[in-house]
Amino acid sequence: MVKSILLVGVGGQGTILASKLLTTGLMEAGYDVKMSEIHGMSQRGGSVSSQVRYGDKVESSVIEVGGADILVSFEKMEALRWLKYLKPDGKVVVNDYEINSMPILSGKFDYPTGILEELSSKVPTKVVHAAKRAAELGNPKVMNVILLGTIIRSMGLEAINWEKIIGDNVKAKFKELNLKALTAGMDLV
Q: I need a labelling partner for 83 at 20 to 30 A (CA). Which of 8, 33, 98, 171 fits?
């Protein structure tokens, strides 16, 4: 059985790094894994998505509309943008975090209100405060690893040796911080 995880966010949030760590862990656990990423205007704060599919045999890296088991959104407006990709019985983990796009920054549009309420009215939604938790850990850059932790717990992937994955893929001086962030994320869901 193939599982599909859709990670979405805004350029600079570490969405791609989180998906690469996830993919590495899944591969080391023996799954067949396919990953694809769309950067969009990621260097300028544009939409970024990463699709990770894993199981015994994965034919395609692409998650079709209505095909994601879980949607993990690093920024809350992106959750609404990608919601149509969620399975009818899928779930959403959304970071209660706003990044203003260029049209909002230029004053052409206002940031939409009621996003979390709209999501919750449509699908099972877990709202997390990953930015706040990262700040409590002393480094806002580990928000992505906190959100990775929410995926691990939500998908039942705790048995994978994440300490090794983190140790092999981050600088040694940041290993302990990232392990704390991973645990913090798992504790949020």
A: 33
| Residue range 95-136, pLDDT digits in tens | 999 998 877 888 998 999 999 999 999 999 999 999 999 999
Q: Are 177 and 138 in contact (CB under 8 A)?
A: yes
Per residue, what are the HEC states of the chain? Answer: CCEEEEEEEECCCCHHHHHHHHHHHHHHCCCEEEEEEECCCHHHCCEEEEEEEEECCCCCCCCCCCCEEEEEECCHHHHHHHHHHEEEEEEEEEECCCCCCHHHHCCCCCCCCCHHHHHHHHCCEEEECHHHHHHHHCCHHHHHHHHHHHHHHHCCCCCCCHHHHHHHHCCHHHHHHHHHHHHHHHHHC
Domain 3-188, CATH class in plain words:
alpha beta
Could you read off the pLDDT of 9-36 as tens digits, one per residue?
988 899 999 999 999 999 999 999 999 9
Handedness of CA 185, 7, 142, 171 (dihedral sign): positive
Distances in Å between the Cα of 107 and the Cα atoms of 40, 99, 124 are: 22, 14, 33
Domain residue ranges of the chain, discontinuous segments joined by +: 3-188
- pLDDT tens, residue by residue, 69-83: 999 999 999 999 999
